[in-house]
UniProtKB/TrEMBL annotation:
Region (Disordered): 85-110
Occurrences of domain Transposase TnpC homeodomain (ranges): 52-121
Domain Transposase IS66 central per the UniProt entry, residue ranges: 193-468
Protein name, per record: Transposase
InterPro entries, sorted: Transposase-related (IPR052344), Transposase_IS66_central (IPR004291), Transposase_TnpC_homeodom (IPR024463), Znf_dom_IS66 (IPR024474)
Boundaries of every Transposase IS66 zinc-finger binding domain copy: 129-172
Superkingdom, natural source: Bacteria
A Pfam family matched in the record: DDE_Tnp_IS66
């Protein structure tokens, strides 16, 4: 027999009434425990629903919203101490903010550079029009000048190498080993016996790797110029030129490892016909930026793997600072005594931006707004330092005075906010990322050559990504 016990909103289906206690107070405890259990299940389900809604809003924001990560908060700056809670932001935003006076650039067309060559074209009136109605000759009193920017399209030419031969007339017809023909040696070329000059190779490789112009598009350009140069030939030339430049590559690597700071990053690349690998398998292009800050070295290294061993082999015996994102393949840097591992505030900010975009449209500003303002204040410190021309030691001291208090308050706020934030939510993931990466994120304070983020490496790899 099945008994149904009802208490409040809890329904108990009991197959054996003997399992129920006789004491009503004990029965009430069981029902209360079941209510708590059901409530926990409902809360867990609602939490999952909220997370799914949040992720769905983020997907919509990525597809249909603005791609820029520029923070558009109302208040320009938060105080360094006693940071407000989310409920206080609405009140704070109503306060009046004084905007300092600023100068504007004059609108209009910029003058053309003076160093460009100029060709003067005079547009004069006919000689018969230079006589006045009264019969007097007109006198030139001035002129009106306007400049137009012109360009000469690429010129394809053939360099004809001529090597004269010389022989002795007196020795002609005499069978003697001394009778010789002299000729100048063949000039050294990057690709021996090839038709490509150094200038043509530089043009093709620069268009491919700097301007993201694939070989098949260059093939069409050469066709318009009247030259039949197919993409397979250009690809072969690129590989041969790369082998010839290997000594230069070693010199660049040496210069890279001599600098005080290296920015590292990696991106995916798909190779269609790589021996022993499927065309759909991901490979990676690693980029390293470092050396002398006035003329930094950009070094690209292809590898089929994203393993941290790739970066470890490149940075072997390096001493200095290395700035990366939060990818775990760079964790080996934390164990090297002579390396200072720096994090990237741009990646930390991006996670808060995603959490902010996933908020409901009508939701009030909350924790994401506070976090983004903290990060914005850090960048304001850098902007002020750059405006004052601070470098090296001066920049470090300025950061210790102005950025360290912001970092200290931000960390306290993150630790406090993490106690009542769902770890699986976008905000929870952003807070967890910052706290896990905190030692790396604040390490830039002591490195005068570094910026708060790893954008130098990301900007360096962008041309490759565009032409990928």
């Amino acid at each position: 027999m099945i008994f149904i016990a009802v208490y409040g909103s809890v329904f108990l289906m009991i197959s054996d009434s003997s399992t129920l206690p006789d004491d009503p107070s004990e029965l009430k405890k069981i029902i209360v425990a079941l209510e708590l259990k059901n409530q926990k299940k409902q809360d867990a389900l609602q939490q999952q629903i909220d997370i799914l809604h949040e992720e769905l809003r983020l997907v919509y924001a990525k597809f249909f919203g603005p791609k820029s990560e520029v923070f558009r908060g109302k208040s320009p700056q938060l105080p360094l101490f006693d940071m407000p809670e989310p409920d206080d932001i609405e009140k704070e935003s109503e306060e009046h903010v004084e905007i300092p006076a600023h100068s504007r650039k004059k609108k209009g067309r910029r003058p053309l550079p003076e160093e460009l060559p100029r060709i003067e074209v005079v547009h004069d009136i006919a000689d018969e029009e230079k006589t006045c109605q009264c019969g007097s000759h007109l006198v030139r009193i001035g002129e009106e000048v306007c400049e137009k920017l012109d360009i000469i399209p690429a010129i394809i030419r053939v360099i004809k190498h001529i090597r004269p031969k010389y022989s002795c007339r007196s020795c002609e017809g005499i069978e003697d080993d001394g009778a010789t023909v002299k000729i100048a040696p063949v000039p050294r070329q990057i690709i021996p016996k090839g038709i490509a000059s150094g200038g043509l190779l530089a043009h093709i490789l620069c268009a491919k790797f700097e301007d993201a112009l694939p070989f098949y598009r260059q093939e069409k350009q050469f066709t318009r110029l009247g030259v039949d140069l197919n993409r397979a030939t250009m690809c072969s030339w690129a590989m041969k030129a790369a082998r010839q430049c290997s000594p230069l590559l070693e010199l660049l690597k040496k210069d890279l490892l001599s600098g005080p700071l290296i920015n590292a990053d990696e991106t995916t690349v798909q190779v269609l016909a790589e021996p022993g690998r499927s065309p759909t398998t991901k490979s990676y292009m690693w980029v390293y930026r470092g050396g002398v800050s006035s003329s930094p070295v950009l070094l690209y290294e292809y590898h089929p793997s994203r393993s941290g061993d790739v970066a470890a082999a490149m940075l072997k015996n390096y001493s200095g600072a290395v700035q990366t994102d939060g990818y775990k393949g760079y964790n080996f840097l934390d164990t090297q005594d002579e390396v200072v591992h720096l994090g990237c505030w741009a990646h930390a900010r991006r996670k808060f931006v995603e959490a902010d975009r996933a908020r409901p449209k009508k939701a009030k500003p909350g924790s994401t707004t506070i976090a983004l303002r903290f990060i914005r204040n850090l960048y304001k410190v850098e902007k002020d330092a750059n405006r004052n021309g601070l470098v090296k030691k001066e920049l470090v001291e300025y950061r210790k005075t102005h950025a360290v208090p912001i970092l200290r308050d931000f960390k306290k706020w993150l630790a406090k906010r993490s106690l009542n934030t769902t770890p699986q939510s976008l905000l929870g993931k952003a807070i967890s990322y910052c706290l896990r990466q905190w030692e790396r994120l604040e390490a830039y304070i002591e490195v005068g050559d570094a910026t708060p983020d790893n954008n130098l490496a990301e900007n360096a790899i962008r041309p490759f990504v565009v032409g990928r």
